Sequence to fold (259 residues):
Amino acid sequence: MTPRLTIVGAGPGDADLITLKAIKAIKSANVILYDALVNVELLKYASPKTEFIFVGKRKGCYAYQQEQINELVVQRALRFGHVVRLKGGDPFIFGRGAEELDYAKEYAIEVAVVPGISSSAAVPAYQGIPLTKRNASESFWVITGTTKSHKISGDIALAAKSTATVVILMGMSKLSEIVQIFSNEGRSDTAIAIIQNGTRPNENVGIGKISNIESIVEEKQLANPAIIIIGEVVNQRVDLSNIYSQADLALASSKKQVA
Fold:
């Protein structure tokens, strides 16, 4: 078998937010290495003979270090053929997908990428928050809250000076610093939303202002994995609860008719 690696984006959490191309890749995989934020329901698309290896990180505990994951990819591809590296969201948005592709190519392994729906856009959308809207926001930043050196990203200070929507991933541990940065720019009244477990049944949401978001986080016990959205668009939030309820009822009704 030809050694092959496909980096696949699993989407933000809802198992239905997966592309057809991703499903095809999962079905053809001999080995799947998957992350902690991947919905395990997606593994049901794989062949019964597929080997599954969990390589994710939970609460700072790594199943494998990145160097070990790179070695696993190469080892399994050379031995078994097609390896799918299943990553939450989109693999090229803070997912180290490019690093793993580069490493595999050094061993003459064929590589491919299946983009995924990024949590940076999908999670706010599920809460009715548009990242851009006329007269509210002309652009948006997507920033990692914590860098490789475990420090807050300097780009957040730059973004705080703009009128753009700011989306921060992996930023909950730096929330106090983020609040301070925006407060220093005179933006204590700026709207902010924090969405934990976005697009999943256990989704938890806190909405407030820079000045009071920390107390809201404590009240609602918000924690990782969560996305932070800052900007006027949070005030433009559309109530989608009734829309989703009606859609779920319509889907359930259609399934009964088919049955």
DSSP finds eight helices and twelve strands in the chain. The helical segments are 20-27, 66-80, 97-105, 119-126, 155-159, 175-184, 213-220, 241-258. The chain has a mean pLDDT of 92. Residues 16 and 208 are 30 Å apart (CA to CA).
